[in-house]
Design a protein that fits this description.
The protein has 123 residues and is mainly α. The chain has helices spanning 3-20, 23-31, 42-46, 80-86, 91-109, 114-119, and strands at 34-37, 55-58, 75-79.
Length: 123
């Protein structure tokens, strides 16, 4: 499937997921940009992440002060080709995985560590 179509499906899925969130979480969720990338770039891989990474939260968590040495704002990355492959090239499975991956990364934005994310069923 073309990248542009995957991005459209993923964007629609994120928007739908946000609408389902409680109001206080929805407001926070809409404050962090979501970037739809084909795959992790060389800088992400150089940081030790695997090439089949599905998503990544980058930047300070909600309520944290930004690192003066890293001016990047908080953002969520979703990796379209990896999600599509992981979903077995099935559209419904892709939507489901985009939703789960987005919620996982949103959890990191909200300040949840891996244990917090897992305890909420978002692993």
């Amino acid at each position: 499937m073309k990248l542009s179509r995957l991005v459209q499906i993923a964007s629609d899925t994120v928007a739908s997921t946000q609408r389902e969130l409680p109001a206080e979480v929805r407001t926070a969720a809409r404050s962090v940009p979501v970037r739809f990338e084909p795959a992790p770039d060389k800088d992400v891989l150089a940081d030790g992440f695997e090439p089949d990474l599905l998503g990544l939260f980058s930047g300070p968590a909600l309520g944290e002060e930004p690192d003066p040495g890293d001016p990047m704002p908080p953002q969520i990355f979703l990796y379209m080709a990896n999600l599509w492959d992981f979903a077995g090239e099935d559209v419904e499975a892709f939507r489901s995985e985009v939703r789960l991956t987005y919620l996982h990364e949103l959890g990191h934005f909200l300040g949840w560590d891996e244990d917090d994310v897992a305890s909420r069923g978002l692993e």
